[in-house]
Fold these 3 entries.
Entry 1:
Amino acid sequence: MTDYLAAARAVADEMCAVRREIHRHPELGNREFRTAAFIEDHLRRLGIETRRVTETAVVGTLTGGRPGRCAALRADMDALPLTEATGCAFASENPGVMHACGHDVHMAAVLGAARLLAGRRDTLPGSVIFLFQPDEEGYGGAERMIRAGCLDGVDAVFGAHVSSTIAAGRAGVRFGKFYAAANLFDVTVKGRSAHGAERENGVDALAAAAEMIPALIALPDSFPGERCVVTVGTITAGEPRVTELRPTVAQQRQPAPAGCQILSDSGLGAGVIVGKVTEFYTSHSLPHYLESLQKLLCYHQKFRP
């Protein structure tokens, strides 16, 4: 029986160098051109067939010498729009972009696994698919790969994420849901204009939006047992009678659920502030979380005549 741990330790220095080379040249989502070419070159030198299923998504296929099932190993490829200030000798050479989420380690780990398995292909049962996913941080790289057929014939997929809270040499396992999906939303708050000396006759949209922010952040408390987080990342104001809460911008937009509104008393006199959920942005994963966000936002509807 192959001692894969001993084999991995034997190539650890080489794979560390691979990780550092990837770290030096980070690329943002859907722009991983150099990274994809690096991965393809590495896999081909191992005798592993490669193909592109999207512009930067790389799939490698290793067929074993014995019959068996098909397993896939997955790594994400994209970096984050951050400026690295670590001072490391292998720090990012791409200004304003950094592998700050560990994707460089994930790619090196899967390439290391590819090396170990390729050297033992004659005794390997079944086949192994190596999935290198672009745009994990953004707009649905995994979904596009799946639509392109990268999981056709695959029996199981394995992936992992590095964590600074787990000691080197250990692995953390959790049953059920683990990392959450992100679903984004816009809220538009509309007020009513009035003379500056007669605030009681108007409704201040900015004040109402400021009041809504802590209420939104506290909404997950209404769902005990559910690990949910609501964050308001950006607030844009200044136009007459209109304020928008915008966490971020995503690629795919969906209409808000019918009747999903948050109504809040302004506390400034007559009228009602209407905070309407104008659009949802989905993360292309786990519809459960989109449903949870809809429940969060619809739960606290308050209507006044």
Entry 2:
Amino acid sequence: MKKIFILFAVIGCLAISFTTGIFGNTESVIDDIDGLIRQYEEAGALSKDTSHDEVTIATADGKDISVPDCESEIHRCLTLDLADTREEAIHYMIQKDLLQREADAAGITVTDAEVEELIASQKKLMTEEPEVGEFFKNYFDSLGLTEEEYWTQYYEDYRSHIKQEKLRNEMYHSYLEDEVKKRLAELGVSPSPEEFAQILEKEQELYSPVIREGFSSYYQEYQEALFDKYHVTVVME
């Protein structure tokens, strides 16, 4: 199969005007999904005898972080190149849970209409791009699901992705405001609220590489700090 850049489409990142610069390394090249899965199986990263029971992978503030069909989720992380090893896949799933807690605490919500719009865009992409359609078909097969079973089973997962991107975007806005205020202070400029809003809007359009790189590092540190904030203990290897 010719190389295709597919991960961005698969995980369904929210398309917001300035987010292209934020995400950085969201693309992943997958040549042969079947061969990739075989490699992980041979390395012992993917159990052939998967259990559908809910598995506790960690505790956060004394509460369990449990994952239904855990081995299938690990397989999914590896297949979509969200992780390179089983350990990284478990780390990714824990981080995902913590980000959901943060988004819920921030009062972020996602409507069914938003989820359905995202899924519709995925289906449209599958129809319009044969290679994308082929990737998805192989991917569904590797999970042992039909297409409709996949959309049903991972419906809430798409909601989670949208919610996390909304959280990230809110954090970006706050980060951008702080950085612009710092720059203006260094220049000795005190704009009116209206002028500041205009400057902020322009900065967002330009999306300074300095701010992009700074936010990327800031967000990465924020995600890792959640493990300490929630007193995470990993119980699954």
Entry 3:
Amino acid sequence: MDRFELLEIIRYYAPYLSTVERELLAEKNESHNSLIQRMHSKSRYADYDVIEHCACYSASESSMCMEAPREPLTDEEEMHRLLEEFNATVSRMKAKGVDVEFLHELLDKGDVISKLFITDDLRILLPDYGNMEIEMPALPKTVYLFFLLHPEGIVLKTLEDYKTELYNIYRQIKPCGDEAKAHVTITNLINPVNNNMNEKLSQIKTFINRAFTAQMDQRLAKHYYIEGEKGGLYRLALDRNLIEFEE
């Protein structure tokens, strides 16, 4: 198989392979059929008889082969593909001796900060990151949504003034629970003696980090934390113009 054939095959299957895989394929000298079959098995057309339709493949017949229709990648699939390529590129740069701190500085300059979108059923989505969802239990989510509704910030010692609002948010998230227990839960949450609110703020950070570690660069997670200093205002780090509630 000549180089023209190989490039045509790689070009067809490129969306389904990582950068490293493509580079390795370009260096391999495999038989025609085994190469096509191995690459094809990684794509979304595993039930298409690629060998039968492409056994005749040659440089002069390249335009007649690989005619199976290609579906566009979903946003999530495209995100994963780009992250694979990015990670492979970073690994090669590190191997070449590029300083890690320099890479972080370079990335910080180009960070895209996603909007934070709250759906009508109170899911927390990041639309600019492929609608990535930040999932958390009812009580931490109650605290998070509460702070989203108060971008000006809240002093924790004044939480008693917001007890009704916190209760209403909690009941929206968990409407089927016992009302008496819900009141006790919120009362304990805002009690300054038991430190429950600080624990929930710490848990929120953990859930945000978990979502970013699984799907994105964790450095970006810091923009979605609720932070503050003891005795001062606690607020979401994100620009309020990037917070949107579904109407």
